[in-house]
Amino acid sequence: xxxxxxxxxxxxxxxxxxxGACNNCDIEILDCLTPRxxxxxxxxxxxxxxxxxDVLLISGPVTQNILPRLKRLYEAAPRPIKVVAFGACxxxxxxxxxxxxxxxxxxxxxxxxxxxxxxxxxxxxIISGIVKVLNQL
Amino acid sequence: xxxxxxxxxYLVFPGFLFSAVVGLLTTWVDRKVSARVQLRVxxxxxxxxxxxxxxxxxxxxxxxxxxxxxxxxxxxxxxAAATLASTILWLVNLRPESSFVxxxxxxxxxxxxxxxxLIFGGSASGNPLGALGSAREMKLLFAYELxxxxxxxxxxxxxxxxxxxxxxxxxxxxxxxxxxxxxxLAFIVLIFCxxxxxxxxxxxxxxxxxxxxxxxxIEYSGAPLALVRLNTAIMYLVLPLFIxxxxxxxxxxxGWRILTSVLKYVAIVVIMVLIKNTNPRVRIDQAVxxxxxxxxxxxxxxMILAIVGY
Lengths: 137, 310
Prior knowledge:
Chain A is of the alpha/beta class and 137 residues long. Helix content of chain A is 34%, strand content 15%.
């Protein structure tokens, strides 16, 4: 395994984007950074710009308005980038599947590497999902 | 032969390699202390090194609207300037006879270059938020340079010389600058200026991750981002060292003084981390008012006291 790849496993930086979720998943993501779970122990940081990211964490069904922006975000990310679909909505549109402005789950438009189900997922589930993504590398 | 020696000094021992390793370890101390303040565990000691190697291995994206040369060159220039400041400071501390006339002025000027490089890099990125970050960094630079220079002049007036060697010798025979009233006042001013120079809370206005998504750093990815972060890490080493040299008798690796040197350094770093962790971000106008108001007054009082002889 190369040095850069080994280092990538030790410091995955996460960029989080909400594509129309109800905000419950976003609160649960912040839980992971609090003293009880503290994912910074494993080098995980939440970054503000997509150019710094290694993992693209997407919560929510994709709405019509956000779709072109989601595609641009995926193209703007520096490779290698891992995409994680987050929550019941991210995986299969959840309760919003019949919405008039919902155009489908994330994996219809960009390749997804891991799914973290739950409404919202527990912090333990999130950490387990991140570990699975890193083991794919 | 002399030239080769200078290159080794600049690139390996007190220069780039040494400064980068110690600077990255300092950023680990920063993150660990921040985590402990928030009752978290914090990252392991190798975390900054893992971050750097990871960024070096990632793809470099240059945005379509960016000026390629300026965008990619500026992190290198900033890093070179930070390394130069670090080299000069370590050399005068370890072997005071390598000091030259006016080296305080040189270090003062060289320490400004990383900030200017960041301003150019941000505005070359072609991103509106990057340009906003650059504008804020420029205003902040104008704000903190005034009290910073007056605080440094306090020591120079007291010693009556522009060279680090004389400053260190004066403190060796007459006691450290922190023992005098003017020294304490100027020290307080310098700590706040260092906070602004490093872009730490409460003065991280130019980066502001939650507000303008990284500001001047926003479009950097991969290796250039690693250089920008290394730049910050080395400045994190340079500024406490500069303050210690001017006010606290310098650092030394001989005998038991190695222990006190490390303690002084860690003490200043921890003070800065605590300020960072207990303050919210201020607006740019508040920052300018803070530096041109109370900080300027404090440094002016320190200057007058130094001239009178306290």
